[in-house]
Amino acid sequence: DRVGVAPHRFGIAHDGFGIPLGARFATGFVLVGHVTEWMMALSAAGRPRRRGRRGQTRCLVYWQQMTPEKPRSDDEELLSRPAPGMPASREGDEIRVARMRGELADGFAALAGVERGVTIFGSARTPPEDPDYKLARAVARRLGREGFAIITGGGPGIMEAANRGARDAGALSVGLAIQLPFEEAINHHLDISLEFHYFFTRKVMFVRYASAYVIFPGGFGTLDELFELLTLIQTAKVHVPPVVLVRRSYWEPLVAWLRDTVAAEGKISPSDLDLLALADDEKEICRYVISAARKEMSA
């Protein structure tokens, strides 16, 4: 079998006993073990390079980390496991903590005037001709006329549609963008535009300034936002149920799985399903949102 999988390279060095494990060499190699029995040294390409007889080869096993790829985002840099023998830098962590603190402070300052907010989630891949896009714009327009600020992730698709709807109504339009390894253009229908490096600081803003949540069809990001919201509501961190799921045909299979498998096996309570409301049309969606906002105000 090949020994040496990118981004690491393994090799053999003769003599050198007495050198402690973890020792670094000027070449960048790190000692990870000793070998005294018969062995075969492999080159970086994984081909046999030298043979030895049992008991006659006294070697060091060394490891070299190849030049790492630049992290594609600050979240990836934060969450990546430190390389063997290279613990996380406390100085670097202090810089990250300062950036996190700064993102929270900037978000709090920029959004301090937002009172009746509705956070709208959904796919960035939804094109303008899609019925979901048109519905998201209409819902945001209607809610804007009811005095709600519209909060989205600031990107294309459903987010753009909702921000356009807010602009149509003359309502406050907020976009909370995220730094991603691929370009996700910020839409141009925003009154307040913030860009975050870390997902969790951005999520604080989505939740803190919202009186209700509307979830249009989407992928992993939308599902992540949905289930985090449900967890926060279930654990009494926030108090604005229900979460409105738009388009029954899209969400009913998921709700059925939650009911027939997750709840049936006792992993959640049957009453937890009451945290969700399914809706198909503009009036129904807005009725749930207005009701949730009134409950929040009277709480």
Strands in their spatial order, largest beta sheet: 9-8-7-6-10-11-12
Number of helices: 8
- Low-confidence segments: 1-18, 24-32, 34-67
Into which percentage range does the β-strand content fall? 15-25%
Q: What is the SS-derived class?
A: alpha/beta
Give the termini separation: 65 Å
Radius of gyration: 27 Å
Relative helix content: 25-40%
| Count of extended strands | 12
Give the CA-based shape.
globular
**N-to-C SSE series?**
EEEEEHHEHEHEEHEHEHEH
The average pLDDT value, as a whole number, equals 80
Biggest β-sheet strands, sense, barrel: 7 strands, parallel
Looking at this protein, list some descriptive labels.
about 300 residues, alpha/beta, 7-stranded parallel sheet, 3-stranded antiparallel sheet, about 35% helix, about 20% strand, globular, disordered N terminus
